[in-house]
Amino acid sequence: MRIGFLCSGGDSPGMNACLRSVVRTAVTSGNEVIGIKHGYEGLLNEEFHTNIDGTIIMGMRSVSGLSKIGGTILHSSRCKRLETPEGIELAAKILKKYGFDALLPMGGNGTLTGALELGKVWDGQIIGLPGTIDNDLQGTDFTIGFFTAVQTAVEAVDKLRDTAGSHDLMFFVEVMGRHCGDIALATAIASGAEIVCIPEVEESAETLVQALIKIKESGKTSVMAIVAEGDEKGGAIAIQQLLKEAGNPFDSRTVVLGHTLRGGSPAPADRILASELGNFAVTSVLRGETGKMAGRIKGELTLTPLETCIAQHRKVDTEKLRLLQIVAG
């Protein structure tokens, strides 16, 4: 069986570890893998990863040492052409041209949406892999890259806390998360932040200012607020201005972590999850599965229909919100 692997959309730590697992699982079972460069755009342009000997079939040594490397050696991109019927038809034609039997696309909502549409016109098997730091996909408790993004964010907030304490400041720290506030919430809990602003919870500027007044009256001289980029009030800069106008008692600064969260060597938890899901995706294809995404729910490896995974964005765990309210004091 010939299996294609590609990364599409935003990169996430653990993509290389997943590729390593896919290749070694496939080779061990007598199958072959071709890495497709630059995501769906690279597929449409017939761009494939080439080994040092000029061949395109990836072997055991092709993926040596990849687990610790961030980003993706296959490169990634967004592909507007795949959003058109002509692009979908061309992708199916190229997959058939090169004799692919299965495709494992790794990415987020847009990647899986493209996979779903491609599966309607191509007769090969498709198993998606959840590669996004946002943790916003249905069908898995955690997406590959989430743990590393939170670790990176917490390390940054810990450093900012020193400056906040030295100068009696409030920092608004913006993290990624357009639709799901999981990165912001996990970062807030782990770093001991007092405030979190996420898309799932609507709070007025006046309500937040009242909370800040109580925090100041309690004797605290510095505050950390973690803001998801998708919060309904806007990002960190917008929220800082809104709270200033509403009477924020703290002098404040903003820091936007942005794409920093996507980079870096994957945390062990992401390497393990990527390895598990890469292996599971290949074995699922060999069992004849298609049109699904590989995930892990409550410790169990699962397959969820692509339609379900992209039907709506995953939301934060409300119990963690309650926990933050308690531990933040």
Radius of gyration: 22 Å
SS strand fraction: 15-25%
Helix content: 40-55%
Shape: elongated
Structural class based on helices, strands and sheet pairing: alpha/beta
* Amino-to-carboxy terminus distance: 57 Å
Name the poorly predicted regions: none
Compute the number of strand runs. 11
How is the biggest beta sheet arranged?
Answer: 7 strands, mixed
Order of strands, widest sheet: 3-2-1-4-5-10-11
Secondary-structure element series: EHEHEHEHEHEHEHEHEHEEHH
Instruction: Enumerate how many helices there are, as a single number.
Output: 11
- Mean pLDDT, to the nearest integer, reads 96
Helix-strand blueprint:
Layout lengths: L1 E6 L7 H14 L3 E5 L2 H6 L12 E2 L26 H13 L4 E6 L1 H10 L6 E6 L15 H22 L1 E7 L6 H10 L3 E3 L7 H13 L5 E6 L7 H10 L5 E6 L11 H19 L5 E6 L2 E6 H6 L6 H10 L2
Parallel strand pairs: 1-2, 1-4, 4-5, 5-10, 6-8, 6-9, 7-8
Antiparallel strand pairs: 2-3, 10-11
Structure description:
The protein is an alpha/beta fold. It is about 40% helix and about 20% strand. The chain contains eleven helices and eleven strands. It has helices spanning about 15-30, 40-45, 85-95, 110-120, 145-165, 180-190, 205-215, 235-245, 270-285, 305-310, 320-325, and strands at about 1-5, 30-35, 55-60, 100-105, 125-130, 170-175, 195, 225-230, 250-255, 290-295, 300-305. It has a seven-stranded mixed beta sheet with strand order 3-2-1-4-5-10-11, with helices on both faces. Helix 7 (about 205-215) links the parallel strand 7 and strand 8. Helix 6 packs parallel to helix 11. The longest helix has 22 residues, at about 145-165. The model has no long low-confidence stretch (mean pLDDT about 95).
